[in-house]
Amino acid sequence: MLNLKKADFPNEYWRAIIDCDAAYDDHFLYGVITTGIFCRPSCKSRVPNKENVKIFKNAMMALEEDFRPCKRCKPEGLNLPTEEWVEQIAEWIDTHYSEPLTLNILADISHGSPYHLQRSFKRVKGISPTEYIQSLRLEKATWLLEKSEQPINEIGLAVGFSSTPYFMTLFKRKMGNTPLEYRKAYLKTQALEREESEE
């Protein structure tokens, strides 16, 4: 039974993946462990790290192990429903929000085009991928402002903002006050609530 994991597969299969060799499309499919997506050898998506590749004889074997068909190359004619695809991307963002993320990076990881990703994400989620990322980062930053004593600039970088000024500007635009003002107001409210509960 052909179901090989990581580097346990023939070199010719790895070469076929690197070369996007359509001659191997009927011989095997490959899954990328880090994204949970499986593809034809001829898929034009970015070449994964060899240690993250798992080889399958057919789509059924890949599906049984919870891999999802690639949107770009549609192995064995399968196509992931758009809603599932967008949810899968959102879940990936939820875990990787602090990393540098662009529409092109997300499209590459999810095996779609930036244009299709932008349009589909907005249709399913009601906001663009960039707005989703910003909202998630602000939510995480708010939690850190409330629960930690980390300096403002460290919080911005920790949640994925590339610069402190950008973090502060976006925070004020979305939340109505600066991160520092927000933290002070939160601590003041907490202190007042403690006083009231002690009376």
Strand order of the largest sheet: 1-4-2-3-5
Distance from N terminus to C terminus (CA atoms, Å) equals 72 Å
* Quaternary structure classification: single chain
Low-confidence stretches: none
Q: What order do the helices and strands follow?
A: EHEEEHEHHHHHHH
Major sheet description: 5 strands, mixed
Features:
199 residues; alpha+beta; 9 helices
Report on this structure.
With 199 residues, the chain is of the alpha+beta class. Helix content is 54%, strand content 8%. It has a five-stranded mixed β-sheet. The relative contact order is 0.08. The longest helix has 20 residues. A hairpin with a 4-residue loop joins strand 2 and strand 3.
Summarize the structure.
The chain is α+β, with helices and mostly antiparallel strands and 199 residues long.
Q: Helices, strands, pairings?
A:
Blueprint: E1 3-5, H1 11-19, E2 29-32, E3 37-39, E4 53-56, H2 59-64, E5 68-69, H3 82-96, H4 103-110, H5 114-125, H6 129-147, H7 152-158, H8 164-175, H9 179-198
Parallel strand pairs: 3-5
Antiparallel strand pairs: 1-4, 2-3, 2-4
